[in-house]
Amino acid sequence: MPRSKADKYSILLPTYNEKENLPLITWLIVKSFSESGHDYEIIVIDDGSPDGTLEVAKQLQDIYGSDKIVLRPRAKKLGLGTAYIHGIKHATGNFIIIMDADLSHHPKFISEFIRLQKEEQCDVVSGTRYAGNGGVYGWDLKRKIISRGANFLAQVLLRPGASDLTGSFRLYKKEVLQRLIDSCVSKGYVFQMEMIVRARQFGYKIGEVPITFVDRFYGESKLGGSEIISYAKGLLYLFAST
Ligand code: GDD
Ligand code: MN
């Protein structure tokens, strides 16, 4: 199938203290798109990282060009959910890819997301750790139980028809993502889950690509006890309201 000339992919990269990871993830994304030939832009949403991530991002912009690396920083840490909302406002692509900047989401899967989207005309393609060859590497037992438990609870309560609800490595049609964002109430980590639950509610076509999630080497996770509590609250809210 000949691909449409107009297709452009905007990759949203939220960063908070990712100065070691940003150069490598950027290089891998650039490499993936140079190989596929698809048009793209990388939108870095840095929340005033004290480690100087934004300075690193500026250097990358000098290397790859300001059409490829777009900087949309915010003054302080305002959370992951609102970082996406902020990023999409500036996206010029007709498709949006959301992924973590810490190398847990490998850019090599992007071409599979794109292929599946085109083959099956998906509105959303979701990376999944919990189907096919997907999996998680490097997490301790506690983190595995939290993630599995969060997914299991959500599966039982919401029956969303997708195997990985809390993952965030996804491809969306832009207008679909915008509509989902407009209808989502959660702002924290539970945002990922609400997006996929709403997607199913609206009857959007969701495709899944098994991914391996590799725990970060540099820096640390921003997910802590308070996120887990707000996840549980958000889950109950969704259960009650959908
Ligand atoms: N701009 C911005 N602001 N970026 C943030 C913020 C924030 O407040 N908090 C985190 N990030 C960025 C990180 O720099 C990273 O690129 C990405 O968001 C994910 O953050 P991590 O702290 O690495 O999350 P995680 O590895 O614990 O959680 C991952 O797995 C969860 C459950 O499986 C993420 O993929 C989550 O989205 C996912 O829900
Ligand atoms: Mn991470």
Automatic annotation (TrEMBL):
Its EC number is 2.4.1.83. Residues 10-180 form the Glycosyltransferase 2-like domain. Its cofactor is Mn(2+); Ca(2+); Mg(2+). Keywords: Endoplasmic reticulum, Glycosyltransferase, Magnesium, Manganese, Metal-binding, Transferase. GO terms for cellular component: endoplasmic reticulum membrane. Pfam families: Glycos_transf_2. GO terms for biological process: dolichol-linked oligosaccharide biosynthetic process; GPI anchor biosynthetic process; protein O-linked glycosylation via mannose. One of its GO terms (molecular function) is dolichyl-phosphate beta-D-mannosyltransferase activity. It is found in: Endoplasmic reticulum. It comes from the Eukaryota. Gene3D superfamilies: Spore Coat Polysaccharide Biosynthesis Protein SpsA, Chain A (3.90.550.10). Pathway: Protein modification; protein glycosylation. It is an enzyme of class 2 (transferase). Its main location: endoplasmic reticulum. The keyword Flavoprotein does not apply. Transfers mannose from GDP-mannose to dolichol monophosphate to form dolichol phosphate mannose (Dol-P-Man) which is the mannosyl donor in pathways leading to N-glycosylation, glycosyl phosphatidylinositol membrane anchoring, and O-mannosylation of proteins. Component of the dolichol-phosphate mannose (DPM) synthase complex. Belongs to the glycosyltransferase 2 family. This is Dolichol-phosphate mannosyltransferase subunit 1.
